[in-house]
Amino acid sequence: ETIARTNSTPKQTSQLTAAAAATVTEQPTEVETPPLEKIKKGFLKFKEYYKKEQVLFKKLAESQHPKFMIIACADSRVDPCTILGLGVGEAFVVRNVANMVPSYSRDACSSTASAIEYAVLHLKVEHLMVIGHSRCGGIKALMGMKEDGSNRFSEFIEDWVLVAKNARKKAILGSMSFEEQCASCEKEAVNHSLWNCLSFPFVRETVAAGKLSLHGGYYDFVNGSFERWSVDFKE
After folding, report:
1. pTM for the predicted model, two decimal places
2. pLDDT single digits (tens) 192-208
3. What are the DSSP calls for the chain, one per residue?
């Protein structure tokens, strides 16, 4: 009897395996949408929202009055409006490598500088926020640079991230690992950009008048957390 039951086991196993294989075969395989087709479908979905919110979009067609200006990184994982739940018309956004703000200079032509000018003087935003994030490639490039530039790897990136070279100097102090130094610099770079915002005379004057507040933010997409702090500025 025992032998008979033992001999029947492989047959049952074989039947179960065949059934499982049939189930797997019957399931449709997921096909990835081609990139440009995804763009098309995305707009068609947005168009449904556009049709439903005609009051909003007719108002936006006339003018924009965002309360926020956000300067964030161009990293595809950290879209600020998605993370913070900001809708169309709620934020004037500038994104660049490592959320940098160069210091004020009348001789330099910077898209970030022109955006700050437009946001503060013309849109009259009430809040300017610089947002950094975890595992930032731009900050990693900055932290990995040798003083003599012997490990340079790009035509433009190193020159751009050197905007935050003072943040790098603060981050390399102590006995932290390279990863810890990068994480520290990611936040220091936000503060450095905020300080550079105050180097613009019209920003400084508007903040001093109490009409504009400056804020720092840090999005950690590894742990799903967001930190925010404000600049306490007094002339």
Report:
1. 0.83
2. 999 999 999 999 999 99
3. -HHHHHHHHHHHHHHHHHHHHHHHHHSPPPPPPPHHHHHHHHHHHHHHHHHHTHHHHHHHHH----SEEEEEE--TT--HHHHHT--TTSEEEEEEGGG--PPP-SS---HHHHHHHIIIIII--SEEEEEEETT-HHHHHHHT--TT-TT---SSHHHHHGGGHHHHHHHTSSS--HHHHHHHHHHHHHHHHHHHHTTSHHHHHHHHTTS-EEEEEEEETTTTEEEEEE-----
